[in-house]
Amino acid sequence: MINNTIEYNDGDTVLEGYVAYEEADTQKPLVLVSHDWSGRQALANEAAERIAALGYVGFALDMYGKGVLGEAGNVELNSSLMNPFASDRALLRQRIRAALVAGRNIPQVDATRVAAMGYCFGGMCVLELARSGADVLGVISIHGIFSPGEVPNEEIKARVLCLHGHDDPMVPPEQVLEFEKEMSAAGVDWQMHAYGGTMHAFTNPGANNPDFGTVYNSVAAARAYQSLENFLAEIFA
Question: What is the structure's pLDDT at 72?
Answer without folding.
Answer: 86
